[in-house]
Every structure is written in structure tokens, then in C-alpha cells.
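Slide 14.
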Amino acid sequence: MPRTCLFCPAVANSKEHVIPQWLSAHAGMRSDELLPAHFSETVGIELHNQEDPRWLSPGRFTAKVVCAECNNGWMSQLEGWAQQNLGDLLLPTWTSNYSDGLKRFQGSPEELIRWLLKTAIVFELSIPAGQTYKIHESFRRVAKGDVSATDLYVFGACTEDKDFNFHLRRGYMVWNGGKLSFQSHERSFDFCIQINHILFRLVSCPDARPFVREIWKAPYHIVPTLMTKPNTRNFPTDNWFGSFGEFETFLEVVPN
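Slide 15: predicted structure.
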């Protein structure tokens, strides 16, 4: 039986580039090679082919999970928005304007959320699957623009450590009763991506709120930019993280 499109009832008859073609060219990634994998605490790293793992160039990293109408319609329009609004932040060459560039999304991050969500959904379906989807199916309508993004948080930051990384987890670290533990919810997920010097993180934490654990590097508190509201901190801050790994550690969650 043919696979159904992720975003509508049509047959999935079109291959979607997990890393959009404009992005791999613009970010100088065409010659890079990727090894998609799934990680779990019980099994560890799972590859598409354990015996003969195959590295993929961005041009060959595709997933036949959408229909031609979605791929050439709203998804293409969303990529056009990303190219126009994110392009200058994703170049491999160094610039000092990353922090100012991130501010353009504060207060109106809807399209950025949709682009990150679409990227995360297609990414998840292109790698070896775990036992359950990490991103609940209801978020597909948010990515398509049929439903407003009302319960998602998006953070942005920068790093001098140029690289390409991403992770997708179903849960997050939660403070509960004074203890920090990993929890997951049907609609929770944590998607983090680095493209050259820019870092983005998209989080869904139902019945909870993000807590940013600041990193002190005199004379600044290193914190990410929360796109969903203006920065109201009354002390000096910066959003330059030392690496992708350091960026991954800032977020903890507090129950409502």
C-alpha cells in the first residue's frame, strides 16, 4: 500500500530534501557527508545499515514522505521565506551581525517556527525510527500553517565553532520536587539544529515552561534569545555559546 503524505491524505509521491537544496548550497555544505542515525539508551546508535553504513551528501539525503502538491506548494513557499529571511545568517563566512539578525524574529516567530517544525518532521521520518514518533502528528498541521503555533518555544543563539549538527528528542530535563530528571509527554519534543554559526532550538513542553540555565562568562550571562517575547533582562547578556554541546545544556523545564 502506498505511503500517505505526512501533511495531507494524498500519496507520498515526491522526494523531499531533508536539507533543502538552497540551504546546502548557501551554507557551503554540498561536499559534506552525513550519517543519519537513531539513538536510544537501551540500544544505543542505530544506523540504516549496521553492516554497511552509508554516508550521504545533502543532495542524496531525501525522504519520500510528501506529495508533489505539498512539496511544490506550501513547503516550497516556506523554503522561499527561509531563504529570504535566514540566508544571511547561514553563510559559512564569519560575521559579527548574528545577534542583531536574530532579533528580527522576536515577537513574530511564526514562520520560523513553521520552518523549523517542517524540517524536524521530515528529518525524523528520514532516519531509522524508534518505537514512537518524537513529534506528535498534530504538529504537522502547525507546520502546514493550518493551526497557529500556540504552545511552542523557539530559541536562537550563535557560536564561533562552525559546524552542522542536529538532535531530536521526545522529552526534556524537568525540575520536579527539587530533582532533575528526564521526562516525556505525548506532545513534547526538543529539536536543536546548528547551521554554521547559527543555533536554533524548538521546544514543546506541555503543562510546563522552559527554564534557561545561564552560563556566566564575564562580563556577560550567556543566554539564548527567546523569540516569542522581547528580552526583558536587566543585566548584561550575550548569546554566543562555545559549541553546539554547550547550547544543548542550557534548557531545563519547570512544571506549571
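Speaker note: Residues 120 and 191 are 7 Å apart (CA to CA).
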